[in-house]
Design brief:
The protein is an all-alpha fold. It has helices spanning 3-10, 14-21, 31-38, 43-56, 67-79, 85-96. It has one domain. The protein is elongated.
């Protein structure tokens, strides 16, 4: 799909989408959901997109979180470099195991969005 086509379908300008793609603009809320839906991505493709997007982020959005959750995210970020590689690996396993875990064997499309 061309950027122009994507832009038209998700009601954003092609220049904005291009800026997001190359990292000049942050990924706006709802953008990934729109891209997944419009491009009819499989679950594996959608999870891959989410993971790549997460790696490009330099700020975690905590606006929708309750106070205790915000505090946890901030404390986690402060302590992250103190965690052992084994602990980090276990946290990654737990974080990526969710109701939306991808079944790589089926490579089926999701009936619900994998983002919140």
């Amino acid at each position: 799909m061309r950027i122009l086509d994507l832009a038209e379908k998700i009601h954003l300008s092609s220049s904005f989408i291009s800026a997001v793609e190359i990292g000049k603009k942050p990924i706006p809320a709802g953008y990934l959901d729109s891209v997944v839906k419009v491009m009819d991505l499989t679950r594996i493709e959608a999870v891959t997109l989410l993971r790549v997007a997460d790696r490009s982020r330099t700020v975690a959005d905590v606006e929708g979180l309750q106070g205790d959750h915000r505090e946890f995210v901030a404390a986690f970020a402060r302590k992250l470099q103190d965690f052992s590689p084994d602990l980090l690996e276990e946290i990654k396993i737990q974080a990526f195991e969710s109701p939306n875990t991808v079944d790589t064997a089926s490579n089926t499309r999701s009936d619900k969005m994998i983002y919140s």
